[in-house]
Design goal:
The protein is 41% helix and 17% strand. It is an alpha/beta fold.
Length: 724
Amino acid sequence: MRRAAEDLRDSVIDSGRGGTHQARVERDVFVQTSLARLEQLQLGRSSLMFGRIDRDATDGYADGAVERFYIGRLAVSDEGQEPLVVDWRAPVAEAFYRATGRAPMGLRRRRHFATEGRRLLAIEDEVFALDGAAEADDDLVGPGALLAALQRSRSGQMRDIVATVQREQDEVIRAELPGVLVVQGGPGTGKTAVALHRAAYLLYTYRFPLEQQGVLVIGPNQVFLRYIEQVLPSLGESGVALSTLAGLLPHIRPRTVDNPVTVRIKGDARMAEVVGRAVADRQRSLRNELVVGFGSLSLRVSAPTTKAIVSTVRRRPGTHNARRRQVEGMLVRALHDQYLAALARARRSTLAAEAVDDDGGDLGFSDFASQIRRVPEVVAALDRMWPVLSPEDLLNDLFGSSALLALATRALLTDDERDALRRDRARTLEDAPWTTADVPLIDEARALLGPLRVRRARGGVEDDDQPRGYGHIVVDEAQDLSPMALRMLGRRSISGSMTLVGDIGQATTAWMPAGWGDVLRHLPARRPPRVVSLTVNYRTPAEIMDVAAEVLAAATADAVAPPRSVRATGRVPVVRAAVPETLAEEVAAAAAALADREGTVAVIGATAALPALAAALDATGAAWGEPDRSGLSAPITLLDVTAVKGLEFDAVVVAEPAAIVAEPGGGLRALFVALTRPTRELVAVHASPLPESLARGLLRARSRPAEGLEPLHDIVDGDAGLAV
């Protein structure tokens, strides 16, 4: 298949650059198609095939006949177009992920292939009784292959889960395209992987129109995007856009950080009205009469007339900048009326008539308008009445002026909230101290203002600066997005089709939602939203989840149920006491010891503690890195809680849990996030007393075994990676 795509590309390129315009266009299309196909067929070290299903034959087969389908990442056919491998997204592959002993969906056998790259390690079979009465595991599909995948060491990048997708995950992946789908999932439920696989499935099933409209994936930070960037290419989809929220406005580069109070206010839904008022406050009549000298004539437009012009244009649809021409046209018309009246008066006087004739006589409206628009007094009046504004100019002026802030926030924000928005006005936009919290406000202003320039296009007017729209948007950690950020995403949705994944229990921002209804009210509501839950934790062992569950219960007052862990490791979380002077050294020593025997290790601490932890890690001589510099490729990674969401590591050292809880924007939910990152081992090092819920969870983990679960190493062969 790769050779066929290469031959097509080479044959078209070899045909030369000449020919008709149509021939050149067709050649370009063939080249682009073949290059896209080649990119799709490059799977790297990922195995092409990972499963097989045998099912009762249908449509003309003899009774008792069996059809066999191999399931893989891409569809492969032989020279006669007979299918050799079925794409995992095809309808026939659905039973591979959903069949159970009680509902076999016509399957006789389901086979999982365990692979390491292109090397086959072993095979796991599940045989279904013909009457569907077999006592089979209704919870897990391919349990041996699943547990083997969970036991593998993590790396600096997320792997796809296409070979081990479970039934409840597959139901989310194959959900219908239209409307907003919310996926509530606790830590380790695979919600991020499910969202990415859903993007790949939607592109396969709804290739038209999504291939043209595009699919956008929004992540919480650049570290997270680098972590997931290989998942979709491994599934044969490389055309999906990955971005942070700030990345949607690439010309805005946040250069500073707001304090938590200001962040909360800027993200509040009330800011939409504040920005709207700030725009409206720049649409104002003249205070005094406009007097314009035009040749020997003096033209006058009264202040009430300019007020009527502004009021009329305000009631008309359109963006602020686009309506500037309407204001200009009405003002010029008023001046032209004054001009005609002045001409009539002048012609009643012989002396004045001679002066008018010397000026050029009676001008038509077009000639008059072209001249009067260049008069400085008219330009100044228009800039006062209806200035052309960029969103950056608007916000720079707004935040830099107490008077403008008072007008825009009256009866909306308190005095303290208004003062929290105030900052010195930058002399140039290049010097403006933009923050990440400013980005949704700039986008809100852009939606109201419109582009600075409008270009004429065949069939109408097109904006130069319209944001790119997408046919489907996937949002990870959606519970942490502010109302203003959600409005920003809603403007980029062409049809209102979105997938939101997150966990209310892990919400750590100032506008923490009480439920998904608080999120959905800020998004397009063209169809009723759907909310589904993922309930099984595949990442976090039961021993660690016992600890984290107590913290979650205290953080949410038992309002959020923790997911059920699918496995246990037999390793109880470890707690080490230290004194403040040696805390960093104890943390570094614990991380270095874990790195000697585990795959990836994370040290998670409060932001203020990171410099001391970095120095202590240097002193150990261990190889470590920070995500902004080395990604997640180092054996030990040092992070704070704000950067760790969505990531997973083989082992985690939590430094001073009490400091994480006490940090602004932290709390018990932030501690819950930190505790649920490891797949194998958890170590907590503390000098201050442990939070009560954490201490209670540690006692629970030590005193109560995980019921119904066996240690993973007892049921899985660590070398072969398969169920024994």
